[in-house]
Amino acid sequence: MASSHIQFTTSEAFWDHIDAVTSSAATQHVDALTFQGVSPQDLNGLIDERGTRGRGIRFRRFDTQEQILIVVIPGKPHERLHLNLYFEVRDEISLMGLRDAWNNDGATRFFRGQGHPGGDDADGDGDAGEPDSSGSPRQQRGEREAWPTLVMEASGSSTLADLRKDMRWWFSASGHQVKIVLLAKLDRPGREIILEKWVETTPPPRPGPVTRAAARANTPYPVRAQEITIHWTPGMAAAIPASHVVTGGDLQLEFNLLFLRPPGPMEGDFLITTSRLQVWASTVWEVVV
Asked: What CATH number is associated with residue 140?
């Protein structure tokens, strides 16, 4: 199996590493690689080459200070892990009559501070991220540089700790414009999918004068609002939804966080029921080798 942490040397060596994964069965088990020592100039070159080489990889997150680039190499398990869950959310939005009020932003690249004075721009000189899936309300976030309200990140080979670093980046880099981050971790040895929903909360204001320290203390911070585990029962076929046992209940996505307004008549929070989560899990496991 390929190493998941690699020192960046040249673009040719970079693509050799990608080829080694995509041309073998390793892509079933390795869906993310971390390259260290990547400069903004290196990233710009890789972005250009990705287009000319016709590669379907995603640059999940680039950290300018640490010079780390996390690359997603999507195989079927990875894509079903996030896409099929996103489709469940989109279907619930459509059933509420809001299909045309929702943008599917996919893996659009975003830059830290994008859309704000002093933020990084699209020249590729600052932190950047490309989610697995994302979406936003058309009316409130219809402009080109608007951030999504919903972001999804998934992986089989990345740890939950790695995914949580990505989650924190989305909240911070967006200036807290991202409202919900869903993390989906495929645990092959444990035969389970771990789904986490993260939102942000703001601590109560401190009494006394408003100082810089007090302002920092009132900055929103992420909290895990929900954890759902879906375990595949040994001895049962993966394609059977009932073989996947859900612990943690329905996935609930708050209407006001996704659409940035209170729900109107016949509107409310979106629920992905346990039965739909079972179907989602079955679609993932049936293509896992």
From this structure: 3.90.1570
Residue 50 DSSP symbol: H
Residue-number span of the structural domain to which 60 is assigned: 1-74
- Report which of 271, 184, 269, 189 is spatially closest to residue 228, judged by C-alpha positions: 184
Instruction: For residue 51, tell me if it sits in a domain.
Output: yes
Q: Calculate the dihedral angle through the C-alpha atoms of 68, 74, 79, 83, rounding to the nearest 10 degrees.
A: 50
In 10 A of CB 145, how many CB atoms?
14
How far apart are the C-alpha atoms of 49 and 90, rounded to whole Å? Answer: 32
29 and 166 share a domain? no
pLDDT tens digit sequence for 187-229: 999 999 999 999 999 887 766 666 666 556 678 999 999 999 9
Q: Are 42 and 109 in contact (CB under 8 A)?
A: no
The pTM of this model reads: 0.91
The residues that bridge with 58 in the sheet, in sequence order, are 72
> Nearest 5 degrees, angle CA 195-CA 64-CA 34?
50
**Bridge partners, residue 196, by sequence:** 183, 227
* Residue 39 C-beta-side C-alpha neighbours within 13 Å: 6
Lookup: tokens for 185: 């971790």
Between the alpha carbon of residue 231 and those of residues 42, 107, 187, 238, the distances in Å are 41, 28, 10, 11
Instruction: Give 130-159 pLDDT, tens digit per residue.
Output: 999 999 999 998 888 899 999 999 999 999
Residue 288 amino acid letter: V
